[in-house]
TrEMBL record:
SMART domains: MIR. This is Protein O-mannosyl-transferase 1. It is a multi-pass membrane protein. Pathway: Protein modification; protein glycosylation. It catalyses: a di-trans,poly-cis-dolichyl beta-D-mannosyl phosphate + L-seryl-[protein] = 3-O-(alpha-D-mannosyl)-L-seryl-[protein] + a di-trans,poly-cis-dolichyl phosphate + H(+); a di-trans,poly-cis-dolichyl beta-D-mannosyl phosphate + L-threonyl-[protein] = 3-O-(alpha-D-mannosyl)-L-threonyl-[protein] + a di-trans,poly-cis-dolichyl phosphate + H(+). GO terms for molecular function: dolichyl-phosphate-mannose-protein mannosyltransferase activity. GO terms for cellular component: endoplasmic reticulum membrane. Its EC number is 2.4.1.109. The chain crosses the membrane at residues 68-88, 100-120, 126-142, 154-174, 186-203, 208-226, 246-267, 578-600, 616-637, 644-665, 677-697. Belongs to the glycosyltransferase 39 family.
Length: 728
């Protein structure tokens, strides 16, 4: 029974020495001197702020993309014991001793290092020779721009890692298709494809480009499977469902999980939550939650409320009034009603309080039991401090003459009667009998007499003149098709009024609420709002010293100065390997021309290369050339400030195309031994030039050693490059 113990247990393993050596060289090139410089480098000033907020659990919104990449950077800070206490306000600022620089830069560096063996594996799975795969990996290894970008607390190297991992996983899955369908390894690589795609999108939305490429490739491959008569309908259905699960359902679920973790970590109120809705703000610890906690849920007749405009940009503001009146005549000669001003005020103030009144009753307190206001009910809004009624009439607004003036009515005993009845319309109602709820309900106020809708028109950018204290204009919008957010309001602060006397009511308006009702949002509600803000909230794009156009990238007519030593000439630049980039452009051009030539010839039934070589040429070009195209061409359609680092995912694919073209030229166009020998010698000479350029620009890739003024001038190979010259 124990006879198996008589023989030793032997474990054998195949080790790809090329892969191990490439991984080690990748780690050395990216991890060497990782703590240098111990100062803020370029966009570390941007991402570092978010890492600090993660450490302090403070909520933020970054309109540049999803939170997964930020969480990975924060993970490095967490593992290094970072407490979040550092002021990220200046590029070049020295890091204090509490900042774990090596730990913060570790994950991007590891991702960049692993891109080297991934490049090797991808070309092997594309059925190119190991020599070609080795060449591709060495080109990635010696690419100065990829080294620079991966050695700092930035996201591009992490994005490229997940992109390449997704491509490799899909190729491995596809190569297992014929002989090992539905095996364990088949499922592993298929699922890893979906996971890597989701991670790429979760780091930056640029990952969507490669995700779409792989979905299109998977769709094309499945289309070919449909024509395979050896596969039954059941088998085809299983293949379809497996791909749908792994490439669509799981990535979507994983993408949601990034936000779930993000929101679970960031539970404290901060400076960014002001752009969110009142309901979202109230779900965070501190901030608005301290004010709104325990408010009554249902708005009733007699409720004292503040009304926040839902649009919230360019700034949040609340419906407001004060004792000052509109001037009798405006600067342009138009007249006004001289009624009490109503504005939208971007700060919390006692004059933001209003009382919801029943038009048929005189009392301004909540009855017992409270009588809730529902969708479609008619109300009057009484200004809490001045007790004047919200009013609009057929008088032109001060800044928007095509809209109606909104005021608080003053009876001047002239032929201008009060028109102060408003119909409450709950925009996000589930039924026509919904109760108006604090924070949760988004409502429009429709004027009964004129059908005008209460609107914060000042959010479009115009503010009132000095007589209106530069506050934002509020109007009655006559043409109210649809539900523009500037016409929608929600109750933010709320209490049940108890004091009928005005003086007692003023004291009550300054007092906090006491009742205790929770208004926590569901995760999906918070995710939907946050996702919408990320997609729609855009900072004003300003011209940057190092911004560039997509056309500048191909010829590398631009660079970015990442860091400059405060005293010496040491500096770090984002600059690509000129020899590699020029070769990548040439390879793309050769691939395009040869493909068109082959297609024309094949149309004439002239086959210059064997069918298996043609399939290899098309599949390898589809992945490498297609990866370059989908990651580059969309930038011509984007209206945003662009930088050279946006091109790095595209140029990575273009670099992988170089060995594809070189191997094809060697195998099919160099037919004689002499030509093959000459071609091999040219490749050696060319690769030597790549290594020479890498070594030449290493001082501005790693930031050391410091170069003299003469040496820096010698590095300025193009007039458009901004190499920093310190005056001596």
């Amino acid at each position: 029974m124990l006879g198996f113990l008589k023989e030793p247990v032997v474990v054998t393993a195949k080790i790809n020495v090329n892969l191990v050596a490439l991984t080690m060289m990748g780690l050395i090139s990216r991890l060497w001197g990782l703590c240098y410089p111990r100062a803020v480098v370029f966009d570390e000033v941007y991402y570092g702020q978010f890492v600090s907020l993660y450490m302090k659990r403070i909520f933020f919104v970054d309109d540049s993309g999803p939170p997964f990449g930020h969480m990975l950077l924060a993970l490095g800070g967490y593992l290094g014991g970072f407490d979040g206490n550092f002021l990220w306000n200046r590029i070049g600022a020295e890091y204090s001793m509490n900042v774990p620089v090596w730990s913060l830069r570790l994950l991007p560096a590891l991702a960049g290092a692993l891109c080297v063996p991934l490049a090797y594996q991808i070309l092997v799975e594309l059925h190119l020779s190991h020599c070609a795969a080795l060449g591709a990996a060495l080109l990635i290894l010696l690419e100065n721009s990829l080294i620079t970008q991966s050695r700092f607390m930035l996201l591009e190297s992490i994005l490229i890692f997940f992109i390449l991992l997704a491509v490799l996983s899909y190729l491995k899955f596809y190569n297992l298709q014929k002989h090992s369908a539905f095996s364990g390894s088949w499922w592993f690589w298929l699922l890893l494809t979906g996971v890597a795609c989701s991670c790429a999108v979760g780091v930056k939305y640029m990952g969507l480009f490669t995700y779409m490429l792989l979905l299109a490739t998977a769709g094309l491959h499945f289309w070919h499977m449909i024509g395979d008569q050896n596969l039954s309908n059941v088998s085809l259905l299983c293949h379809f469902l497996a791909r749908g699960l792994a490439l669509i359902i799981i990535p979507m679920g994983l993408y949601l999980s990034f936000f779930y973790v993000h929101l679970a970590l960031l539970y404290r109120s901060g400076p960014h939550d002001q752009i969110m809705t009142s309901a979202f703000q109230a779900s965070l610890e501190g901030g608005l939650a301290r004010i709104t906690q325990g408010q009554p849920l249902e708005v009733a007749y007699g409720s004292q409320i503040t009304l926040r405009n839902v649009l919230g940009k360019p700034m949040q503001c609340w419906l407001h009034s004060h004792t000052n009146t509109y001037p009798i005549r405006y600067e342009n000669g138009r007249g006004s009603s001289h009624q009490q001003q109503v504005t939208c005020y971007p700060f919390k103030d006692v004059n933001n309080w209003w009382i919801v009144k029943d038009p048929g009753m005189q009392q301004l307190v909540v009855s017992n039991p409270p009588w809730p206001v529902r969708h479609g009910h008619i109300v009057q809004l009484v200004h809490g401090i001045t007790t004047r009624y919200l009013n609009t009439h057929d008088v032109a607004a001060p800044l928007s003459p095509h809209s109606q003036e909104v005021s608080c009515y003053i009876d001047y005993n002239i032929s201008m009667p009060a028109q102060n009845l408003w119909r409450v319309e709950i925009v996000n109602r589930e039924s026509d009998t919904d109760v108006w709820k604090t924070i949760l309900s988004e409502v429009r106020f429709v004027h009964v007499n004129t059908s005008a809708v209460l609107k914060a028109s000042g959010l479009s950018g115009a503010s009132l003149p000095e007589w209106g204290y530069r506050q934002l204009e509020v109007v009655g919008e006559k043409l109210s098709k649809g539900y523009h957010q500037s016409m929608v309001w929600n109750v933010e602060e709320h209490r049940y009024g108890k004091s009928q006397e005005q003086k007692e009511r003023e004291v009550e308006l300054h007092s906090p609420t006491q009742m205790d009702i929770s208004k926590n949002l569901s995760f999906m509600a918070k995710f939907t709002e946050l996702q919408w803000k990320i997609l729609t909230l855009k900072n004003e794009d300003t011209e940057h010293k190092y911004s560039s156009s997509a056309l500048d990238w191909i010829t590398m007519d631009t660079n970015i100065a990442y860091w400059l030593h405060p005293t010496s000439g040491a500096q770090i630049h984002l600059l690509g390997n000129v020899a590699t980039w020029a070769s990548a452009n040439a390879a793309a051009l050769v691939y395009l021309c040869l493909s068109l030539w082959y297609l024309l010839r094949r149309r004439r039934e002239i086959y210059d290369i064997p069918e298996d070589a043609w399939q290899l040429w098309m599949s390898a070009g589809g992945i490498c050339g297609g990866g370059w195209a989908v990651n580059y061409l969309p930038f011509f359609l984007m209206e945003k400030t662009l930088f050279l680092y946006h091109y790095l995912p595209a140029v990575t694919f273009q670099i992988l195309l170089i060995p594809v073209v070189l191997q094809h030229l060697s195998d099919h166009l160099c037919r004689s031994v002499l030509l093959k020998s000459m071609f091999s010698a040219l490749i050696v000479a060319w690769f030597s030039s790549v290594f020479f350029v890498y070594c030449t620009f290493s001082p501005v890739t790693y930031g050391q050693p410091a170069l003299s003024l003469t040496e820096l001038k010698a590095l300025r190979w193009k007039d458009t490059w901004n190499i920093l010259m310190r005056k001596q």
